[in-house]
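Quarterly update, task 2.4: 4'-deoxy-4'-aminopyridoxal-5'-phosphate-bound model.
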Amino acid sequence: MSRTVYVNGDYLPEQEAKISVFDRGFLMADGVYEVTSVLGGRLIDFAGHCARLARSLGELEIRNPHSNDEWLAIHRELVARNGVEDGLVYLQVTRGNPGDRDFAFPPTDTPPTVVLFTQSKPGMAEAPAAKAGWKVISVPDIRWGRRDIKTVQLLYPSMAKMAAKAAGADDAWLVEDGCVTEGSSNNAYIVKGGRIITRALSNDILHGITRAAVLRLAAEAQMEVEERNFTIAEAQGADEAFITSASAFVMPVVEVDGAPVGSGQVGPVATRLREIYIDEMRKKAV
Ligand code: PMP
């Protein structure tokens, strides 16, 4: 079935959507993106994704082509046109099409390129993987130093995911200076003695929108949270581990580099946080 996608103001069948070969996103990975979940036809934590989009664009000096209300209207229109009940809206903004290839940024009045499309994932909140948990492997984190900007430079995360697949695992945790930074496309956590431990925010990791919500909900539920670095050995000796992202919500991790985490089964903290997160976010969806 053909989707309707959004390109620079037009809603088009996906086969008719076109971007220039000179687009900076295509030639230089000069663009940023956001992924917002849809549950029951409504957008999850939309304000958070809009705020991070504005920040990513600001850090790269790309003009934000829309107000938050306009972004919301485009998201809603795409969800409606594609009849998405559960799934995702992917959004990408690039520095646009300068009409040729050049390392220098084009003039600031070059219009950014805007692309959005939906992915339908019926029953996404009831993913069977959440009952089984993920196995992860560790790989070196060799990404650039501005991981706080959500750019479309996803080659290394993609290679890390393939390394995980080749090892029979579900994902890779990235390790720098002996500590876990984050997952290939998610934030990483361990639980020890009832305390939730996750790396503090810096330029080393993406400031996950799901991370912010989950840490707030954990505090509201009187769970202890500690923001600090942790090692793979600590993860292997933890009671539980999990990851968060807009598309996986809270996903338990039951194995790290072949060693079971805790009992090797999905644990109560990750299970509870997943339930709380999905419940709360459904209530506030727009
Ligand atoms: N870290 C990285 C590297 C990611 O790619 C993502 C998801 N895009 C996340 C963390 C999680 O962010 P969010 O909760 O906003 O999806």
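Highlight for this quarter: Residues 35, 182, 185-187, 206, 208-211, 244-246 surround 4'-deoxy-4'-aminopyridoxal-5'-phosphate (CB under 6 Å).
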